[in-house]
Amino acid sequence: MSTNSRQLAFQALRSIQRGAFADVAVDQALQYSQLSPPDKGLFTELVYGCVRRQRTLDALIDQLGKKKSHQQPPDLRQILHLGLYQLRYLNQIPVSAAVNTTVDLAKQNGFAGLAGVVNGVLRQYVRMQEVGEDREGNCLADPLQLPMNSVQRLGMLHSYPDWIVQVWLEQFGLQETEQLCQWMNQPPAIVLRINRLKTSIEQVEAAMTAAGVAVKRMPPLPQALQLVEHEGAIQDLPGFPAGWWMVQDGSAQLVSHFLDPQPGEMVIDACAAPGGKSIHIAELMQDKGVIWACDKTESRLKKLQQNCDRLGIHSIQIHLGDSRCIPEFVNQGDRVLLDAPCSGLGTLHRHADARWRQTPTSVAELVQLQTELLEQAATWVKPGGTLVYATCTLNPAENEDRVQNFLDHHPAWSLIPPAPGSPASQFASAAGWLKVLPHHWKMDGFFMARLEKSCG
């Protein structure tokens, strides 16, 4: 692997440290790079890995160095992150390559005078690691010194803010929380949803196999195919131009099945862009009826329209506006979907920097927004109609608490289970709502509740 991939990773990490979103920084760096495919893979792994493991890497710097991480120049800290990440998490990188290329990075980026410090920190980590190994190379002791407190221990070991670990511990207990922390540090899988208006899952499977692309089904989801270790552009896969499929995780597919839309109905998607669920709803309705796709972001609605055009969907009508104030839909919808903006704690593996961007303060603001959206979306439902409230987070303040608060103040509404035979039925809890735990189902973490408005 060339040093260029590491230099590019350093530049991307520096942009992220200064406020750029990780996905944007990675895309911009790759857009103009001349890296080979293996070097692109190393670059991506280094950037996302260092962002995910930021807390752990900072703790190691604090424990190994003479100065705390916050006392060092931020750029030097990013260089140390790159070196320590390779030593700790990338077994395929030789120790000498990890150390030497990191020292070279320091020299090339204005820290020649501190190259000895970089070398010393990394060499000390290697020595401590070697002391803790048996004759077969199995690790007996971790150079990382962990606190005794469960929240802080999990947060430091798996690299999460304490508040997220606390939210999960209170729901799931110690063992489940540790498994969840480990799952969220894995690279995300790519899942396709087959457009059954144009093709079948069997036809797509055959086309992928013929092209040398390994896929596997995801029961109980009837339209889901997961790519197995695929590299390369998604748009180059068989069936993309013909609209045979679009990318959508299994949990997101589950939402539309839970909504259970029927041909000829009027369905309103309150926060629709970029449109994966709206289009899935149209497919389940055989493209018969009307789906109003609402969103306040025009650029994201353009993406929805592009997806409709590619997949051949005609029943979706786009409405640009804030769904907290769209009075013309009152009592119009047979079914309404509110896939609410949320903290995204169920999709942290997909968004490497999200764990550092969300805070208890930002969650409190989201809770207020979710409450307002739910109040308005409920007015759109006809008597006897249904509303599905969904999030991609695992935080009761945004999930169970929002639904229960709504039910407490709206006696005409009740919680109803999934339709018999629905793929969603396997995920139903005793309380009636659905919660998908990623480490159990190998899908994104989601919460869903289906509410019915009485006819009276």
- Assembly level: single chain
Structural class: alpha/beta
**Spans of at least 5 consecutive residues with low confidence:** none
How much strand? 5-15%
**Topology as H/E string?**
HHHHHHHHHEHEEEHEHEHEEHHEHEEHE
Shape label:
globular
- For the report, how would you describe the main beta sheet? 8 strands, mixed
Number of helices: 17
Q: Can you offer a commentary on this structure?
A:
The protein has 456 residues and is an alpha/beta fold. 46% of the residues lie in helices and 14% in strands. It has helices spanning 3-17, 22-31, 37-52, 54-64, 74-89, 95-108, 115-131, 150-158, 162-183, 201-210, 250-259, 276-284, 298-311, 354-357, 360-379, 400-409, 438-441; strands at 191-194, 215-217, 224-227, 245-247, 266-269, 290-295, 316-320, 333-339, 381-391, 413-416, 434-436, 446-453. The strands form two sheets. Strands 5, 6, 7, 8, 9, 10, 11 and 12 form an eight-stranded mixed sheet that branches. The longest helix is centred in the middle third of the chain and has 22 residues, at 162-183.
Task: Compose a concise summary of this entry.
This protein is of the alpha/beta class and 456 residues long.
Please supply descriptive tags for the structure shown above.
17 helices, four-stranded antiparallel sheet, 456 residues, globular, alpha/beta
